[in-house]
Design brief:
With 280 residues, the chain is an alpha/beta fold. The protein folds into two domains: 8-164, Rossmann fold, CATH 3.40.50.1980; 171-279, 3-Layer(aba) Sandwich (Rossmann fold). The protein contains eleven helices and eight strands. It has helices at 8-13, 15-21, 39-49, 72-80, 92-102, 121-138, 143-168, 185-191, 207-220, 237-243, 263-279; strands at residues 32-36, 53-57, 83-87, 108-112, 177-181, 194-199, 224-228, 246-250.
């Protein structure tokens, strides 16, 4: 995904708002105030932090994080927060501009440098560990509680992985040749499908690239095209039409589809879409 480029000048123009709202907040609580950049992070913070945290997420789950425009309200949210959690791939300009505008010297900023697709169980567990460590560092008094909740959630992740793998083992997914959006590759390979090729966002698909993909798809008898909801859900539509094959859209973020606000619900929806597509 592309980096988030935010106009620092524009953000700084919003800084005066912070001065207006500071000291005027009501209903303050003792909860740890955490701002997250995506729902991938937010749902883990909510699971680990429970009623000890107050979570505000910036980027809507169905929207591409690479095409998000920071709003004045986001600056205000960071001005009141104790912790800002974001992905390591989210650009320096996004980080520095937003944080500078918030003018919050007490704000701890943690970039989560985690490789791989967060929908994959092992990657989700790694994310839980890093987020738990961040919460514990900022709020050491509640560290034992955070760790206990994290361990409980990681057990649920392991159980869900076993459940899904058992379901997928009933089908011969390794014999199903697919092409998928590059942001879905890690998850699709984990599910057991045979990835023949990947493709990028719609704006990167030149006529020559599409032709090459179609030619390869015909050669390898590709049966399924898998798009990514957040990075251009119709990127593979033309390829699927040329190959006369099935196409599905998966989500990389909890909450991308209705009723998928947790990792378990989001991965279940993705798996259901895959199973239905290969069964027909």
């Amino acid at each position: 995904m592309r980096k988030l480029f935010v106009s620092l000048a524009t953000l700084l123009a919003f800084s005066f708002v912070i001065g207006l709202v500071s000291g005027c907040a009501t209903g303050e609580t003792s909860k740890l105030k955490v701002v997250t950049s995506t729902s991938l992070i937010a749902q883990i913070v909510e699971r680990v932090g429970g009623n000890r945290v107050e979570v505000v997420n910036i980027i809507p789950p169905a929207q591409c994080p690479g095409h998000f425009d920071v709003k004045p309200g986001n600056v205000q949210q960071l001005a009141k927060a104790s912790l800002f959690l974001l992905h390591g791939w989210q650009g320096e300009k996004f980080t520095q501009g937003l944080i500078a505008s918030a003018n919050n010297p007490g704000l701890a900023v943690v970039k989560l440098d985690i490789m791989g697709n967060w929908m994959v169980p092992s990657v989700q567990q790694e994310a839980v560990d890093q987020i738990t460590a961040a919460l514990s560092q900022v709020d050491s008094q509640n560290s034992p509680t955070y760790q206990e909740s994290a361990n409980a959630y990681k057990s649920k992740i392991a159980a869900k992985e076993s459940e899904i793998k058992a379901r997928l083992s009933k089908g011969n997914l390794s014999s199903v040749n697919v092409m998928c959006a590059d942001q879905q590759e890690g998850f699709v390979r984990w599910a057991g499908l045979n990835v023949i090729a990947v493709f990028g966002r719609p704006e990167t698909l030149t006529p020559q690239i599409v032709k090459d993909l179609v030619d390869k798809g015909k050669e390898k008898k590709v049966a399924l095209i898998i798009d990514n909801l957040q990075s251009g859900q119709n990127a593979g539509a033309g390829i699927a039409e040329e190959l006369k094959c099935k196409r599905i859209i998966l989500s990389n973020f909890p909450g991308g589809f209705d009723n998928t606000e947790t990792w378990e619900k989001a991965i279940d929806r993705n798996i259901e879409l895959i199973v239905r597509a290969v069964a027909r």
